[in-house]
Amino acid sequence: MQRGYGFPTRFYAERGFKITSPFGLRPDPFNSGQTDFHTGIDYGGRPQGFLVQTTVGGTVFAAKMYGGWGNLAGVTDARGYNHLFAHLQTILVRPGQTVAKGDAVGTLGSTGKVTGPHLHYQINRPGTGVSGSGYFGDPDRYYFEEEVVTVERAIVLGSDVDYYNAAPLRDRLNCPLFFRSALGQLAKVSTIYVCGGPIESVREAAPNAKLINLSGSNRFETAAKISSHLASI
Ligand SMILES: [Zn+2]
Fold this sequence. Notes:
Layout: H1 7-13, E1 18-21, E2 24-27, E3 35-38, E4 41-44, E5 51-53, E6 58-65, E7 71-76, E8 82-88, E9 98-99, E10 104-107, E11 119-124, H2 145-148, E12 153-157, H3 163-173, E13 177-178, E14 191-195, H4 200-205, E15 210-213, H5 219-232
Parallel strand pairs: 12-13, 12-14, 14-15
Antiparallel strand pairs: 1-4, 2-3, 4-11, 5-10, 6-7, 6-9, 7-8, 8-11
Bound molecules: zinc ion.
């Protein structure tokens, strides 16, 4: 399945934002002639003070100034991924607060290491907090809740340690990864690759799905099963 712009870019475009700097390698805005790896997407085109809304519902886990991020609001979604909204002028949420998709988490600003007002939006993997190197990948490649219910294939992990083992399978199948905390979202998925942890709880969450069991008794055995499955498809 080919995907164009993902949900975040469509979400912010509907609110008048446009991409000012994409995810991935780019010319370094602070050192001319050098390149820099951009771990999120920058959205601009709206004035300082414009409301910044969250792309996901969840729980606020970060709401303060973090060095180069400037004023940062962070929301953990149901799958455990951390959505970061950086360089805000003001933060409008508190840690522990529950937010719904579309709630304002702050206002557009130019705090931290920036060349002008914009929103830096980044998705971090579960367990990585606000770490810059914890990025999931291109936010436009993340599957959001409304897309997840319609996907045909999904991968379920046993725990964080299975993430790197399963990433090549995710890239090959182009399908979302789920942590155990989000089994409730799998009810309509047709085929589920279980890459770590027991299969029984997955069966309970998705009784009609075809399950492909790639779980070993430890993460090394799981890694081996995933690579031999990759070789067979
Ligand atoms: Zn950025």
